[in-house]
Design goal:
The chain has 470 residues and is an alpha/beta fold. It has 2 domains: 104 residues, no CATH class; 352 residues, Metallo-beta-lactamase, Chain A, CATH 3.60.15.10. The chain contains 14 helices and 17 strands. A 9-stranded mixed β-sheet has the order 6-5-4-3-2-1-15-16-17. Strands 9-8-7-10-11-12-13-14 form an 8-stranded mixed β-sheet, covered by helices on one side. α2 runs antiparallel to α3 and α4 crosses α5. It is globular. It starts with a helix and ends with a strand. It binds zinc ion. The site of zinc ion has 5 residues, from α8.
Length: 470
C-alpha cells in the first residue's frame, strides 16, 4: 500500500511489483534492453486493458507474496527468487516474453470518456497542432501546421508524406472524437499566421467540420500591418461562411464548454494574450504591452511571433499553458517590450503542463517565465534541428530557476540536435511520438501518454505518471 501511495505522489516512478516483475524478466533472459523494460513497466503501471500485461502484473504480485513469507527486504526477495525459482523463472520468463512484448506493442490508446480532459500534441513533423477534448466533449484544435523544413535540418513528415499534414490531423481528430456520431471541431484556433501553425487548417476544414474559428486578426487582418500573401488569401477565403472571432484577451467566456458547462464548473479557458494585449491577472482587465504603432518605425514593429495568442486552460487544480511562438529572451539592445513572456508569466502563474513557446527556440522560455510557470511537464513541438536551443534546455532543467521534478517530452527530436546538445538530451522522457496529456475527472491528477506516430495505429509506446496537480 505504501509503495502504491508513494507511486501516486511521485511522478514517473513505477510500482515495486512491476519493477520486480521486470527485474525477473531481466535476470532470467537478459535479452531485453533496459529501455524496453521501462516502457513495459510504464504500460503496466497504467493497467491498460490487455491480457499479457495483466499476466505480468499477476506474476509479479505472486512472486512478491511468496517471497514475503521468507524475506523482509527487496534484496532478500531477489536472492530468494534467484535460488528457489530458477527453473520455473526461466519457463515463465519465456512465456512472458512471448506474451508481454507483442501485447505491450499493441495497446491502443484508451478512448476519451466524459469528465476527462485530453490534450493531444499531434506530430505530423510539419509544425504545431494540438487537439483538445474538454470534459464535456467540446473539441478544440490549436493550430494545424504545414510548414517547417524537410530533413536533414527538419523533421520528416509523419506518418508519411502520402497525405498533407492537415489531412493527417483531421484523420487523427476523427479517430479521437469517434465517441461522437458526427465528429466536429467546435473551436479552430490559430496562435498566429505562420505556415508551421496555420498552413494545414484549410485542409483540416475540408475533411471535417469546424464550427468556429478564433484568430488574432479577424475581421480586418491589419495588425501591425496588412496581412497578405497566398496563405492569408487562402485562409480568408476559407473563412467565408464560417463563424469567426478575434481572441479577446482577459476573457474566460469566449472559449467555453459547449455541451454541458454546468456539469464542470471548475473548468475554464482564460484568454491571456493576443497582439500584445495581455491579461493583468485581475478580473478581465488587460494592458497594452507594445508601444503605439505610431511611435515605431516600420522595421521596429512587433513581429508575427510577438503577436501570438496565448491561453491557460484550467480544470480544478490542473493548469495548461500554450502561447504559440511568443519570444521571451531578447536580442541584446532590443527594446524591453520585445519580451512578451514576462508579462504573460506574471498573469498566468504556476501550471502543470507548458507547451514550449516558439518550439523552444533560443529566444524563448526566459528564466522569469520558467520560474513563474514552474511546470511539471514540458511539451516541445519540434520541426527543426534548433528545437530546442541548448541554453533553453539548460534553463528548463535548472532546479535553481525553480525546484522540484519536471519531465520533458518532444514530438520528434532530430539526431543532429541530440549530437550537438549531448547528455542533457538523454534526460528527455520521450523524443518521438504524439504526446497526450490525459487529465483525470476533476483535474487532481494526470498522465502523459506517448503514441506511435509512424502509422495510424495510435498504439501506446509509454505512459508517464500519474502526476499530482498542485
Ligand atoms: Zn512556429
Amino acid at each position: 500500500m505504501a509503495e502504491q501511495h508513494r507511486h501516486k505522489l511521485t511522478p514517473g516512478t513505477k510500482t515495486a511489483r512491476v519493477t520486480l516483475g521486470l527485474m525477473l524478466l531481466h535476470c532470467s533472459l537478459k535479452v531485453l534492453t533496459r529501455e524496453q523494460l521501462e516502457k513495459l513497466g510504464e504500460n503496466a503501471a497504467y493497467s491498460i486493458q490487455g491480457g499479457s500485461l495483466r499476466w505480468l502484473i499477476w506474476f509479479s504480485r505472486t512472486q512478491i507474496q511468496r517471497s514475503r513469507a521468507t524475506a523482509s527486504c527487496r534484496s532478500r526477495i531477489r536472492t530468494g527468487l534467484e535460488l528457489k525459482w530458477a527453473p520455473m523463472r526461466m519457463l515463465v520468463g519465456l512465456l512472458l516474453l512471448v506474451l508481454a512484448i507483442p501485447g505491450a506493442a499493441q495497446q491502443s490508446f484508451p478512448p476519451w470518456t466524459p469528465g476527462t480532459l485530453d490534450m493531444h500534441q499531434i506530430n505530423t513533423g510539419r509544425g504545431n497542432s494540438a487537439l483538445l477534448i474538454f470534459p464535456d466533449g467540446t473539441s478544440m484544435l490549436i493550430d494545424a501546421g504545414d510548414g517547417g523544413v524537410l530533413p536533414p535540418r527538419g523533421t520528416a513528415p509523419r506518418p508519411s508524406a502520402d497525405r498533407k499534414p492537415g489531412e493527417w490531423i483531421a484523420r487523427y481528430a476523427r479517430h479521437m472524437l469517434a465517441h461522437d456520431a458526427k465528429p466536429v471541431i467546435d473551436y479552430g484556433y490559430l496562435t498566429h499566421f505562420h505556415d508551421d501553425h496555420m498552413g494545414g487548417i484549410t485542409d483540416v476544414g475540408r475533411h471535417m467540420p469546424i464550427r468556429m474559428m478564433i484568430d488574432r486578426g479577424w475581421p480586418t487582418y491589419d495588425y501591425p500591418d496588412k496581412l497578405e500573401g497566398p496563405a492569408m488569401v487562402k485562409y480568408q477565403h476559407f473563412l467565408e461562411g464560417l463563424q469567426v472571432e478575434r481572441l479577446k484577451p482577459g476573457r474566460n467566456d469566449q472559449i467555453v464548454l459547449r455541451r454541458d458547462a454546468k456539469k464542470y464548473p471548475n473548468f475554464e479557458v482564460r484568454n491571456i494574450a493576443a497582439n500584445g494585449e495581455i491579461w493583468t491577472g485581475v478580473t478581465t482587465t488587460t494592458r497594452e504591452h507594445f508601444p503605439p504603432l505610431k511611435d515605431l518605425q516600420p522595421n521596429e514593429r512587433p513581429t508575427e511571433n510577438m503577436c501570438s495568442m496565448a491561453i491557460r486552460i484550467s480544470y480544478g487544480k490542473f493548469d495548461y499553458f500554450t502561447g504559440g511562438d511568443m519570444p521571451g529572451a531578447r536580442r541584446e539592445n532590443a527594446p524591453l517590450w520585445n519580451d512578451v513572456e514576462t508579462p504573460v508569466a506574471q498573469s498566468v502563474g504556476p501550471v502543470e503542463v507548458s507547451v514550449l513557446n516558439h518550439h523552444g527556440n533560443r529566444d524563448s522560455q526566459n528564466a522569469f517565465f520558467l520560474s513563474a510557470l514552474r511546470p511539471q511537464v514540458f511539451i516541445i513541438p519540434v520541426w527543426s534541428s534548433n528545437h530546442p536551443g541548448e541554453d533553453v534546455l539548460h534553463r528548463m532543467y535548472s532546479t535553481q530557476i525553480y525546484p522540484g521534478p519536471r519531465d520533458v517530452f518532444a514530438t520528434g527530436m532530430l539526431e543532429a540536435n541530440r549530437l550537438v546538445i549531448g547528455a542533457l538530451m538523454d534526460r528527455l522522457k520521450s523524443a518521438q511520438g504524439h504526446i497526450v496529456v490525459r487529465v483525470d475527472p476533476g483535474g487532481d491528477s494526470f498522465r502523459v501518454f506517448i503514441l506511435d506516430d509512424s502509422a495510424e495505429t495510435f498504439h501506446v509506446k509509454a505512459v508517464h505518471g500519474p502526476y499530482r496537480s498542485r
